Amino acid sequence: MKIGTRFKLVFVFAILAVLLTACFDSKDSMEGMDHSNMNQSGMTNTDSSNQSNVNTQDKTSKMTTLKGKEFTLTAKTSNLEITPGKTLPVWTFNNSVPGPEFRVKQGDTVKITLKNDLPEPTTIHWHGLPVPNEMDGIPGVTQNAVQPGKSFVYEFKATVPGTYWYHSHQDGANQVDKGLYGAFIVEGTDEKVDRDYTLVLDEWMSMGDMDMSSMDNSSMNMDMSSMDHSNMNMDSSKDQASSENNMDHGNMGDDAHGSSAEGHDMSMYDIYSINGKSGDSIDKLIVKKGEKVRIRLVNAGLLSHNIHLHGHEFKVVSTDGQPINNPASINDQVISIAPGERYDLEFEANNPGQWYIEDHGDDPRVKGMKAIIAYEGANADTDKPNETAALPILDLTRYGQSSNSVFTLDQKYDLEYTMDLNTDQQSGQQVYTINGKTYPDTEKIKVKKGDLVKVRLVNNSKTDDHPMHLHGHFFQVLSKNGKPIEGSPIVKDTLNLKPGEEYEVAFVADNPGDWMFHCHELHHAAAGMVTHLQYTDYKSDFVPDPNAGNKPE
C-alpha cells in the first residue's frame, strides 16, 4: 500500500473516531451550551445577542451573604458545576446560584440596584415581602423590564421579620428556572439561635435548557421516530403559549416528583439540588452539641419536596416567614414544601453524630437532595439515608396551639370571592384557568383599602397541584375542605392546593396597588393561571412601554 493511501486511510479513521466520540459525548458536551435557539434542523442560531451562554468559560462562585442597607445585584450568565463533571448553563445574580442571601434588620430601609448584564430584559420580585406596589418587580404592571445594559433601583422598608426570597418575574418560568433567585432574610429583634442555615431547593435538567417553545411539529425536518426522548426537555423555556399547542400531554403522570401537571412532564428535571449543588457536593451543616439550630427551607423549584430531618426532635416555627403559635416538637414526619413556600425548623443539637436532612420519595432523583448535619468532631457513620421510607406528612392545619386570630369563618366580609382552579383544553391548547378563563382575560378581584376579603380557592384539576401566591399581602388560612383550622393560626403568602382540595383564606386590603395572584408552578402561570388583586382607589403613574418586551409571567 502506498504511503499516501495509508495516510488517507488513517486520516479518514481519525475523522470517524472524532465524530463517534462527539456522538457518544454529546450529552456532556452540550451541558455548557445554550440550547434556547436550536432550530428544527438541529442547527444552533448564532445571533450575537445570545452568545453569552455558549462556550463561555465563566464559572459560578460560592454564594455569599450580604448584610447592610445598600446593595448591588448584577444579573449575568455563567456556568454552574452542580456535581463534579456536570456543568449547566445558568443565569445568576452576582455570579452565584442561588444569588447572594440578604440579611437585613427589621425596620431598615434597603436600597438594591439591579444591573442587567443578561442578553434579555429582567426584573426582581421580592416574594412574600410586603413592599410598596411600585417595588414589586412585575414587568408591564409595576415597572418596565430592565433592559440589557440598564439598571433599576428597588427601595423599600423591611417591616416584617421572616424568611422570604427574591426572583425574576420577567418570563419567570424561564428565568427563575435558569437560576435567577436567592434568599432574603429579615431578622427580627428577638433572633436567638446559635446556627442559622438556609437551604434553597431546586430541580435541574442534566441536558441544560432547550427552548422549544416556538416549535411547530408539523414543520420539523428531523426524523425523531427512533430517538430516545427520556432526557429531552420539550418545554424548558416555559414560554408556554406556543409550546403547549404542539405537545401531546395525554400520558402525563401525577407523581409529585415526576409530573406535577396534566400538561407538563417534569421527569426531565433529573437533578435535585440544595443551594445549587447536588448529592455529595452539598455543603455540610456544621453544629456543636448544645446549640440551638434553625434551618430555613425555601422552595425555588417547580416541584413539591418532602423534607425529613433525621436524628432529632424539631419544631416548625414558621411558614412563609410567619410564626406558628406554640409549635410542638415532632420527629419522623416530613415537611411538604411546595413551590414558593418557606418553612423554618428549629432543633437543639443534642445528638452528636452526622445526620441527614433529605427529600423523601420513591423517585431516584430525591437522592440528590440531601444534606448532612455534622457535629464538630463526630463520627461520620452515625446515620444512613432512608429517602424511600413512607413517613407521615405534617398536617399544618392541626399543628401548634389555637389562639385568637384576626379573622374567623363567620365574620362579615366586604368581599367574598371564589377562585375555581382548573386544567383545560381551549382552542387546542393546554391551559390553566381561574373561573374558566386564562390571563390576561381572568376577572380581577377589585377591592378598596381597608376591605376585609375572603377568598375560597378550589382545585378542580385532576392531577395538578396549584401553589397559589398572593403578592403584597399575607392571608390567614381559615379552613381546609370545609373544616376549620384546628391548630395555630396559619398566615401565609403561598398556599398549595392538591387536586380536589378547597381552602378558605382571608386578608385585609392594606397595601394599595395592582397585585398579582397566581400559581407558583410557573408553567401554570405562563399558561393562564394568573389574576390581579386591584385596588379601585389606587392610581399609578406607571406607563408600560410597548417596546420593553414585558412578560409578567
Which properties best describe this structure?
single chain; 553 residues; mainly beta; Immunoglobulin-like; seven-stranded mixed β-sheet; six-stranded mixed β-sheet; 5 helices; disordered N terminus
Number of strands: 32
Q: Could you tell me the radius of gyration in angstroms?
A: 24 Å
Q: What is the distance, rounded to the nearest whole angstrom, between the alpha carbons of the first and last residues?
A: 67 Å
Per DSSP, the total helix count is 5
CATH superfamily membership of the domain at 58-191:
Cupredoxins -  blue copper proteins
Largest sheet: 7 strands, mixed
Provide the CATH architecture of the domain at 58-191: Sandwich
Which CATH first-tier class of the domain at 58-191 would you pick? Answer: Mainly Beta
Beta-strand proportion? 25-35%
Summarize the amount of helix as a percent range.
under 10%
**Average pLDDT reading:** 84
Runs in which pLDDT lies below 50 for 5 or more consecutive residues are: 1-56, 210-256, 258-262
The helix/strand class is: mainly beta
Shape: globular
As for the CATH topology of the domain at 58-191, it is: Immunoglobulin-like
General description of the model:
This protein has 5 helices and 32 strands. The chain has 553 residues and is mainly beta. Among the domains are: 58-191, Cupredoxins -  blue copper proteins (Immunoglobulin-like), CATH 2.60.40.420; 272-394, Immunoglobulin-like (Sandwich), CATH 2.60.40.420; 415-535, Immunoglobulin-like (Sandwich). Strands 21, 22, 24, 26, 27, 28 and 30 form a 7-stranded mixed sheet that branches. Strands 11-10-13-18-15-16 form a 6-stranded mixed sheet, with no helix packed on it.
